[in-house]
Fold Glutathione synthetase.
Amino acid sequence: MAQGIPDDVMMNAALIKDLVDVAKDAALQQGVLMRIQETPNSSEMVTYTSFTLFPTPVPKAPFLQALALQTHYNTLVDKISQDPDFLQDALASTIAVDDFTARLFRIHQQILKEGRSQSIVLGLNRSDYMLDQGEDGKSSLKQIEINTFAASFGGHSSRTTDLHRTILKVAGLLEDSQRIPDNNPAAGLAGAVAKAWELYGSERAVVMFLVEDNQRNVFDQRFIEYELWKRNVPTTRKRFEDVCKSGSLDQDKRLFVDGLEVAVVYFRNGYMPQNYVSEQYWDARLLMERSMAVKCPDISTHLAGTKKVQQVLAKPGVLEKFFPDQPQVAEQIRATFAGLYTLDMGPDGDKTVAMALAAPDRFVLKPQREGGGNNIYGSEICEVLEGMKEGTERMAYILMDKILPTPSKNYLLIRDAPLQISNCLSELGAFGAYVRRGKDTVMNECVGHLLRTKGSEHSDGGVAAGVAVLDNPLLF
């Protein structure tokens, strides 16, 4: 492995066995955990979250590029969320055919009509990238997507740094352990939440984590919660059902749930259609959006993270409208864009369909969905597009160039999976946090990073889905 772990370490079976035992013990001690339910009727168990045995080599220049860009991406997302005309134009075709996005957009319109109740904006996002291997052999940083809603693994990635440093020290690679960069996104994300809570102005009010009924990734969230406790910020964990049953607004539109005043709603649930199991859940989302509580994200920031917005931003001249006095910033952001193509009705969309059908392995077909496991690849692109190439339903998707990173070798520690050396692909995320009150930016920072790695045989999938695993960059 170039610039990585020496082959005599990678291939030493006895050492690998010892390192795996050390790694699992360290993961349990560090709290790098996942909640597992064996069967619908069985009790839950806790085990280590999947991770790589060794950190993965990552070139220092694109790593630093991703971190440096994050404050600009924070600004871009925030500006988009404040531009209702842009959102209307960008999403017009999508909301005509995609019911989920359309319902979110109707809430957005209602909030605009009533007037925003809260001038404090809190954004916690993560911009994800891969290193694209060009025909000339050079690698360049290319964005996969930006997550503006429930960007996860900020907690766990704050703990895996020490985990991998411990593994390298036990392997006799002390000097290499110092090539793993410091990382504590949990503290940075919590710092932004705490700032929004402080600006809200009530010590009795709580930060409400809105969570799923069966939350596998609860330990990742807890690290952020612990950081808030350190800052004496009160928290509570509630579900949509709790808001349905006991949520209310007073005459000042202050939000109360189970008798607690809510200063900040931190959405960790609500980004997929299946999260809204009844009309009451949609009513609960609207109630929270109408309230004085700071929303993370608010409805317009949620829409700013859609795939369609990502595709529209790649059009010539669009980024420049958001950075009229900073052309160099627009240029830096645009340099990270892969090819993004519309599937709207008309000549441009027809051209995209023909291009995808002619060479499906070059592209990824993306619906307006978050959470991993939604994208379409290879021959499946042909199956999907053949069935709708003449129909408006294609407007619910965008097409994107497939990013082609260089594989590396590693061991993936996945529960109940055989331990073997694998060809792996990695994805780098940069965490951003910002707080704005009115027109004044109170905070805008890159607060850390995340590296996820998967076997090269997998096209799509996240850590919680059991495909990708947690990792750390070994900078060179």
The mean pLDDT is 95.
